[in-house]
Amino acid sequence: MGLSIPTIKDSEFEVAKTAVSRIYPKALEILEGLVRIPGIAWDAFDEQQLVLSAESVKDLFEGTEIFDEVEILQAHYGDGKLGAPAVVATRKAKNSRPTILLYAHHDVQPPGDESLWDSAPFDPEVRNGRLYGRGAADDKAGVVAHYAAVSALAELAGADFDLGLAVFIEGEEEAGSPSFKNFLSQYRDKLEADVIIVADSGNWSTTVPAITTTLRGLVSLELEVRTLGHAVHSGMYGGAVPDAMMAFIKIMDSIWDENGSVSILGLISNQTSDLVYSEDQLRADSGLLPSTLPIGTGGILPRIWTKPALSIIGLDYPSVALSSNTLIPSLKAKLSLRIAPGEDPERALEALKGHILAHNPLGAEISFGAVELGKPFSLGESGWAKSLAEQALELAYGHKSVDIGIGGSIPFIAELERVYQSAQVLVTGVEDPDSRAHSPNESLHLESFRSAILAQLLFLLGGNQISQQ
Questions:
Q1: Per-residue pLDDT tens for 374-385?
Q2: Residue among 277, 402, 281, 266 at smallest CA distance from 340
Q3: In 3D, which of 5, 64, 24 has the Cα closest to residue 396?
Q4: pLDDT at 110 over 80
Q5: How far is Cα 469 from Cα 465, in angstroms, rounded to an integer?
Q6: Backbone torsions φ then ψ of 18, nearest 5 degrees
Q7: In the chain, N or C terminus with fewer CB closer than 10 Å?
Q8: From CA 462, how far away is CA 469, in angstroms rounded?
Q9: What is the pLDDT of residues 126-182, one digit of tens each?
Q10: What's the pLDDT at 411?
Q11: Rounded distance, CA 449 to CA 28, Å?
Q12: CA 126 to chain centre
């Protein structure tokens, strides 16, 4: 489609910047209110908090008075279970304007060990230009950026603007989006769009904006390793009888080579961008201790963006506090394998299982349990949307945007691409290398948040000028 991409004039930029300055204090107040709601979509947490979170988001978008419909919707998934509440707002396009779908999620990660937080995880606190709190960056800032941008759009373009809008604020992204596929199937028409903006990623830095063009996929696997029919005294049998931990360590040791690279045969590895990223920067961003060596070979960005990586993220085994002089007969573990763009999750799962079974020198009994699969993402033909987004980001941040990869996974993006095959997908966000999403002391850089709102407003204003005839 040979559409003419509007050029954002200096006068338009200044008007938009002023509008964002007006709405920003309210946006920050709203964000702090949302952070206070511990909406966690895991069975172990209070589901009423998740309902309260959804209702609060619904009230926000209803309050703009620009949508034809604002609803809280849910979809069923396996065994008749009902997914978490999502907020959907829709407004039809007029006069051949495109429709833009704005995605974010209102659920958050559990806080983890609260003693590791410098302030209470659900009591937002501003320190040194950052807002601290669980979900402040991931992803309630995305929710509020959408709200603030559409509110400012209505102020500048008038409530009767022609651009079509759909808003989808999911409620279970941090729990793996179990009902996402069924949700898209059930509400496909409501979310139909020409452009999909996913505000759940990050920027190169607090001052350099980015568009995420690649995401690794995910293979999560639970397994049990057993060597004994029952526990025995470690003093009486140690030295002749292997316990489950020894067998597990032997198996795991085969998964990485001497450099720490994943050695599972057949997995795809890709190279990536020409951006410069030093070991010093890696250490600063990740908190890697001075004495600890990084792993892998080649450029650092391919290692964290486009090569496979495996972590042990869970282990059921006696704690130090409950330990005794016993050979433990079995253990359960959960493995997280990140796979490169272009990899097939099913194929990678079989490669992982095959490797474990083939590298079991002590002959332990191995059984596999729950599996979670997520497809990787690679931006294809970007069309007018990416060009307009690059223009808006450069104006808002004062720095040309860069294309980046993310080592983490957002599996539902592949599902969005499958269902809406003609839509252009843009993955953006407000996080930066020090946001610490999923970790204690998660935070949002507030000036970047303001710039993100402005960039999205400029994009929507530009989209409102595009005719698809």
A1: 899 988 766 899
A2: 266
A3: 24
A4: yes
A5: 12
A6: -65, -40
A7: C
A8: 16
A9: 999 999 999 999 999 999 999 999 999 999 999 999 999 999 999 999 998 999 999
A10: 81
A11: 9
A12: 23
Closest residue by Cα to residue 107 from 134, 147, 145: 134
Nearest alpha carbon to residue 395 among 2, 1, 4, 16: 16
Q: Are 8 and 392 in contact (CB under 8 A)?
A: yes
Q: Determine the Cα–Cα distance for residues 239 and 247; give it in Å rounded to an integer.
A: 13
Measured distance CA(323)–CA(348) in Å, rounded: 36
User: 60 Cβ partners below 8 Å, 6+ apart?
Assistant: 30, 143, 144, 147
pLDDT value for 1 = 46
Residue 321, both tokens: 């506090």
**Cα(422)–Cα(419) distance, integer angstroms:** 9
Q: Assign residue 80 a region (left: φ > 0; alpha: ψ between -120 and 50; beta: otherwise).
A: left
Torsion angle, alpha carbons of 405, 299, 267, 219, to 10: -40
Distance, in Å, from the CA atom of 22 to the CA atom of 93, rounded to the nearest integer, reads: 27
* Domains along the sequence of the chain with CATH: 10-215+377-463 (3.40.630.10), 217-270+306-374 (3.30.70.360)
Q: What is the DSSP string of 411-422?
A: THHHHHHHHSTT
Hey, what are 413's tokens? 């993006």
Q: Tens of pLDDT along 309-323?
A: 999 999 999 999 999
What gap in Å lies between CA 413 and CA 428, rounded to an integer? 12
Looking at the chain, the whole-number percentage of residues with pLDDT higher than 70 is 99
Q: How far apart are the first and last CA of the chain?
A: 9
Pairing of strands 377-378, 210-215: antiparallel
How many angstroms separate the CA atoms of 146 and 154, rounded?
12
Q: Between helices 10-35 and 140-157, what is the axis angle to 10°?
A: 140
Q: Give pLDDT, residue 273.
A: 74
Answer whether 216's CB lies under 8 Å from 376's CB.
yes
The mean pLDDT value for 267-283 works out to 89
- Distance separating alpha carbons of residues 260 and 269, to the nearest angstrom: 14
**Mean pLDDT score, 335-340:** 97
Helix (H, G, I), strand (E, B) or coil at 71: strand
Q: How far is CA 421 from the centre of its chain?
A: 21
Per-residue pLDDT tens digits for 341-371: 999 999 999 999 999 999 999 999 999 999 9
